[in-house]
Amino acid sequence: MAGSDSVTPFGGAGPRDLRGRVLRDLRISVMDRCNFRCPYCMPRETFHDKYRFLGSHERLSFDEIVRLARLFVRLGVHKLRLTGGEPLLRPNLTDLIGDLTAIAGIEDIALTTNGALLGKHAFELRAAGLQRITVSLDSLDPEVFTRLSGGFGGLEDVLSGIEHARRAGLDPIKVNTVIQRGVNDHTALDLVERFRGTGVIVRFIEYMDVGNRNHWQPGMVLPSKELVARINARWPLTPLGRAYHGEVADRYRFTDGRGEVGFISSVTQPFCGGCTRARLSSDGVLYTCLFATHGTPLRDKLRSGASDDELLDVLRRVWVERSDSYSERRQTHLAVSERKVEMFYIGG
Ligand code: SAM
Ligand code: SF4
Ligand code: SF4
């Protein structure tokens, strides 16, 4: 039964939303600031020196994040992803990772970073209990990289960050590459070539209309099918099944045995039907979709003495009332001018 607590086809119990989807993953943005200015996420014209980011007291404290994570586990969450903004800009992040790994019921913690500070932090992240990492890297061409990071951050730093992550024992290491037609699609095969056979898994993401500032147009999307064909022509691919229910990437292995590559095709092949994710912004607003126009603020409740039961009631209610399916109805939504939440604010 949708919209209630019950045993689910996804395994395990927990509240189900109006489409029968359970809650399994929580993405936590720990920092709204970033040391890059990727034009599709935080364009420089908007995020300039005078832009007012959150003050440290406005962000959820580690204790508040951990308290919420424990409550989410009671509703079925067993995977966490730390993101941002740039999560490695959050001071003492390893303390948070240590606390989150200690929560019974959390089976997996991941982190998504632009990689510029990874060389500095990889070993302490691993020591704190982080097992795997995702590094965003849109091109190996220095000129394209610079354009796509907004002129900040060095390609060499990111590559050295990935190498440090490997040496620190973070495994698997995934590289996420957002592909924009005519911008970086001509450099996609270089990334495949570089990481094939190294154990690093490259995943190509279709460019999405997240937020309100990137002037997204359908023509800027390179459908994954086209990219699969380009890669397959050079290095034959064999499709792999999904690793688990709710897995968003279509995975292929290189037929010659030199690893795998993934495709996240939320524009051309939406996967809303299996979407088990909630998202928490760095100031404690809960969102149930990457393209949400409204969220549920939790910070004031946390800071005004709400009990665990009261908070659980709020979280459960938000989930059972959820009906999100933006990507399945993109065309309809595009016609509506309501402001969506920004990607840097809730993370990917
Ligand atoms: N700063 C970190 C990073 O870049 O990995 C974490 C936050 S960032 C918002 C998370 C992911 O969202 C990155 O992989 C980024 O490339 C992706 N992203 C941002 N804007 C996007 C868009 N318009 N379409 C697809 N992916 C996007
Ligand atoms: Fe920063 Fe990540 Fe957004 Fe780029 S995608 S501006 S690195 S938050
Ligand atoms: Fe989930 Fe929203 Fe993305 Fe659909 S559009 S998969 S509901 S986050």
Can you offer a commentary on this structure?
- The structure is a single chain.
- The chain is α/β, with parallel strands linked by helices and 348 residues long.
- The chain has one domain: Aldolase class I (TIM Barrel).
- It has 11 helices and 14 strands.
- A hairpin with a 4-residue loop joins strand 12 and strand 13.
- Helix 1 runs parallel beside helix 2, helix 1 crosses helix 9 and helix 3 runs parallel beside helix 5.
- About 1% of the residues have low confidence.
- The site of one iron/sulfur cluster (SF4) has 11 residues, from loops.
Structural class: alpha/beta
Arithmetic mean pLDDT = 92
Summed up, the domain count is 1
Count of separate DSSP helical elements: 11
What percent of residues are in strands?
15-25%
N-to-C series of helices and strands: EEEHEHEHEHHEHEHEEEEEEHHHH
- The CATH level-2 architecture is identified as Alpha-Beta Barrel
Please give the share of residues in helix: 25-40%
Strand order in space, largest sheet: 9-10-11-8-7-6-5-4-3-12-13-14
CATH level-3 fold name = TIM Barrel
The shape is globular
Instruction: Please report the total strand number as a whole number.
Output: 14
Keywords, please?
348 residues; alpha/beta; TIM Barrel; twelve-stranded mixed sheet; two-stranded antiparallel sheet; 11 helices; binds S-adenosylmethionine; binds iron/sulfur cluster
Please give a quick description of this structure.
By secondary structure, the chain is an alpha/beta fold.
SSE layout and pairings?
Elements: E1 5-7, E2 13-15, E3 25-29, H1 62-74, E4 79-83, H2 93-101, E5 108-113, H3 118-127, E6 133-136, H4 142-148, H5 155-168, E7 173-179, H6 188-195, E8 201-206, H7 224-234, E9 237-240, E10 250-254, E11 260-264, E12 277-280, E13 285-287, E14 296-297, H8 299-303, H9 308-320, H10 330-334, H11 343-346
Parallel strand pairs: 3-4, 3-12, 4-5, 5-6, 6-7, 7-8, 8-11
Antiparallel strand pairs: 1-2, 9-10, 10-11, 12-13, 13-14
Helix pairs in contact: 1-2, 1-9, 3-5
Bound molecules: S-adenosylmethionine and iron/sulfur cluster (2 copies).
Residues 34, 36-38, 41-42, 84-86, 114, 136, 344 line the site of one iron/sulfur cluster (SF4).
